[in-house]
Amino acid sequence: MMKRIIGPRFIGASLVLLLCIPGRAQKSAMTESLPELDVHVGLNLNVRLVFQDKRMLDDSGLIGTELGPSIEFYLKPIRILREVTLFNLDETKSVPLTMSIGYRKLIYPGKPTTSRVDPVVEVHLPLWGHILVTDRNRADIDRTDGSLDWRYRNRLTMERRFTIRSYHPGPYASVEFLHTSRYGKWSNTRLDVGCLLPLSRHLDLDSYYEHDNDTGPRPNQQINAAGFILNLYFPRHMK
Question: What is the pTM (predicted TM-score) of this model?
Answer without folding.
Answer: 0.85
